[in-house]
Design brief:
Blueprint (H helix, E strand, L loop, with lengths): L13 E2 L5 E3 L3 H22 L6 H8 L13 H20 L4 H13 L8 H9 L13 H19 L3 H23 L9 H13 L2 H12 L25 E2 H15 L5 H18 L9 E5 L10 E6 L14 H17 L3 H17 L15 E2 L22 H10 L6 E3 L3 E4 L5 E6 L5 E8 L6 E11 L3 E7 L5 E6 L5 E4 L5 E7 L6 E6 L3 E4 L11 E6 L2 E6 L11 E2 L7 E7 L2 E15 L14 E12 L11 E2 L2 E2 L7
Parallel strand pairs: 8-12
Antiparallel strand pairs: 1-7, 2-9, 3-5, 4-5, 6-24, 7-8, 9-10, 10-11, 11-16, 12-15, 13-14, 13-16, 17-18, 18-19, 18-25, 19-23, 19-24, 20-22, 21-22, 22-23
Pfam families: Beta-AFase-like_GH127_cat, Glyco_hydro127C, Glyco_hydro127M
Protein name: Glycoside hydrolase family 127 protein
InterPro entries: 6-hairpin_glycosidase_sf, 6hp_glycosidase-like_sf, Beta-AFase-like, Beta-AFase-like_GH127_C, Beta-AFase-like_GH127_cat, Beta-AFase-like_GH127_middle
Length: 655
């Protein structure tokens, strides 16, 4: 399971075991198939290839099976562990067991590990070749990041297979880390671990083994942040952790940090940490998140809260409030995945619908958009607008590519998509909380004794009808279903069996409605959320979106691509209030999605020169043109062209 809170003292809910649930059809089933049949095998080839990623080759050199220097990224080890998680999920789901090669990978990792438990290939190879590279010499070498993903992968592997081969490696590495941190306490010399995956990883080790020393080490590693000298907002360590009240700095580092602290709060009681988490969460939700769920708007910037002149450069970062550019939107895929992990962990300690609303929005929009529909090409950053030509160079490609030099995002995406089914439900003693909606089948076993199969039938996210049916009731028990009403819902209904409908209104949005069944036998619940096309506007301080709207339907954000109009540029489009939309099926790269067809105004500006910075506006006319919009996640699968989410709006004259 994505995180095991079954014995966590302060967790209110827990996940279903992975083997208890499967996507049966629809968007998520299609996504799971692409992940299993395309993403994971392709990533395997990338990691195995000496001439591409060099990751497995690095482990071979460490194990004494090959010679050479370290190549590839410094965080390649951690990315390999992330991919192993995805490989674990899809293999067990498809075959019920792991291939022999999985054990061979574990054996290789074990042989690469040093006698004292240390395991990070760049530094091990540096020591072997005496090239001057040393352990823990540079915080940006991501050694502890690599450790953290090892801990998480090993915990998952043990829980899903009962095999402790990788867990032994992880425990040995954790003991090395413990010695390192104990020495830091004595010496007072503390470094922040960038992208601190080890907070979550150590707590998973504790949950998996039951050994308190790993929880103690997680607490110590988080507490040590407050002892960092000359910290920066980029690493969120300029001020003490409990003083944080705004989301700042590197977005991946921030989201991993707060995910780890939320994990800790499921194990220990600390009201100050919980208060801090709420403040930082609200800062993100109210000021700095994109409509798609993307976060971390800037590639490079200056911290808006630290010293503007002394070492306060920020990278891949949250900027000022409402600083949300579209063309240069960074939104690194790992940051958006980190947001899902953070939201889920917040939900475990405080099961409120608002957290799963963020999870669903982020997963369906920006996370799915990060990979092509065939599962072979990736975005590192996720823009909200693409033009045909830029007068400047972006750091990353404007199109998805098979191999990204900084290869952290593809395996991270593969593992979260492979685990996506576990976001469908969480459970408590006698309650089932609805998470991400989608057609699935789940074996439910609750603490109150209830034992049955729950069937969810729906075409969500394209349609708001959701049918729940209880089958194979082995043990009946009074059970409460927490029906999540998404934030966008204004009208709907819930019907239990043949009883009268319960109306759902906008007052229920972003909340749970409790439906209790005294008996599960032949039980049904029919949920209906009205899903009209709607116009969304921004806060006026989001300057790039002034007098523009985004088109949404249900949880999906829609966009326009060049190939869905006959215009030279999307810049000439204006949408009118009250535009009619027609839903039409559209096949893109062998995947069927639901497009929206409508008409918009096309501007014709006499004598307009698109290359001038400023000019006098002359005669302008408009005419109606046909336009098609597609879900944002499906864009960049039909060739290069423009793309826009935000569209200028022509307002009606009052009266």
């Amino acid at each position: 399971m994505i995180t095991d809170t079954r014995r966590s003292k302060y967790a209110k809910v827990k996940a279903l075991p992975s083997e208890a649930i499967e996507w049966t059809n629809g968007l998520w089933a299609d996504t799971m198939e692409v992940c299993r049949e395309s993403m994971v095998p392709q990533l395997k080839r990338m990691f195995d290839a000496k001439e591409i990623s060099h990751v497995v080759e690095n482990f071979r050199i460490c194990a004494g099976e090959a010679q050479g220097e370290h190549d590839g990224t410094v965080f390649g080890d951690g990315d390999f562990y992330k991919w192993l998680e995805a490989y674990l999920y899809v293999s067990i789901e498809k075959y019920g067991k792991l291939p022999k090669e999985f054990d061979e990978y574990i054996d290789l990792i074990s042989r690469a590990q040093q006698p004292d438990g240390y395991l990070s290939t760049k530094q091990i190879i540096g020591e072997m070749n005496a090239n001057g590279i040393q352990r823990m010499g540079d915080v940006n070498d991501f050694e502890v990041y690599n450790f953290g993903h090892l801990f998480t992968c090993a915990s998952l592997h043990y829980r899903m297979t009962g095999n402790d081969s990788l867990l032994k490696v992880a425990k040995k590495a954790a003991d090395y880390l413990n010695n390192l941190y104990e020495e830091a306490v004595k010496s007072g010399e503390v470094q922040t671990a960038v992208c601190p995956s080890h907070y979550m990883g150590l707590i998973e080790l504790y949950r998996t083994t039951g050994e308190e020393k790993y929880l103690d080490l997680a607490k110590l590693s988080i507490a040590l942040r407050d002892s960092v000298k000359n910290g920066t907002d980029d690493n969120q360590d300029r001020i003490k952790l409990k003083q944080h009240d705004k989301i700042i700095g590197h977005a991946v580092r921030a989201n991993y940090l707060y995910s780890g602290v939320a994990d800790l709060c499921a194990e220990i009681e600390d009201e100050e940490y919980v208060k801090m988490l709420h403040l930082v969460w609200d800062s993100l939700m109210n000021h700095k998140i994109y409509l798609t769920g993307g976060c971390g708007a800037l590639y490079n910037g200056v911290s808006p809260y630290g010293n503007f002149f002394i070492d306060q450069k920020t990278h891949q970062a949250y900027g000022y409030e409402y600083q949300l550019p579209n063309i240069t939107a960074y939104n690194e895929t790992c940051a958006n995945i980190g947001l899902v992990m953070w939201a889920y962990r917040m939900f475990t300690i405080e099961p409120k619908a608002k957290y799963f609303d963020v999870i669903e929005r982020t997963m369906l929009n920006v996370n799915l958009a990060a990979v092509s529909l065939d599962g072979k090409r990736y975005f590192y950053e996720n823009m909200l607008r693409r033009t045909k030509k830029l007068e400047y160079e972006m750091v990353w490609s404007l199109e998805r590519t098979e191999y990204i030099t900084s290869y952290c995002c593809p395996p991270n995406l593969a593992r979260i998509l492979a685990q996506s089914k576990e976001y469908a439900y969480t459970i408590s003693k006698d309650c089932i909380y609805m998470g991400m909606y989608g057609a699935n089948k789940a074996n439910m076993q609750l603490e109150n004794g209830a034992d049955f199969v729950l069937i969810q039938e729906t075409d969500y996210p394209y349609d708001g009808h959701i049918h729940l049916r209880m089958e194979q009731v082995k043990q009946d028990a009074r059970t409460t279903f927490k029906i999540r009403v998404p934030s966008w819902v204004e009208e709907g209904s819930i019907t239990v069996g043949t009883s009268d409908q319960k109306k759902v209104t906008s007052e229920d949005a972003n909340h749970y409605i409790s439906i209790t069944l005294d008996t599960l036998k032949e039980g049904t619940i029919d949920i209906y959320f009205e899903m009209p096309v709607r116009f969304t506007i921004s806060h006026p301080m989001v300057e790039e979106n002034t007098n523009q709207v985004a088109i949404e339907k249900g949880p999906l954000v829609y966009c326009i691509e060049s190939m869905d109009t006959q215009l030279d540029t999307l810049d000439d489009l204006i949408i009118q209030p009250g535009a009619d939309f027609k839903q039409v099926p559209l096949t893109i790269d062998n995947r069927v999605t639901i497009a929206l067809e409508t008409q918009m105004y096309q501007l014709n500006r006499k004598g307009y020169d698109r290359n001038q910075l400023y000019q006098t506006l002359k005669e302008t006319t408009v005419k109606m043109v046909d336009v098609r919009l597609i879900p944002y996640f499906a864009w960049d699968n039909r060739g290069f062209g423009e793309m826009k989410i935000w569209i200028p709006l022509a307002y009606k004259i009052e009266g």
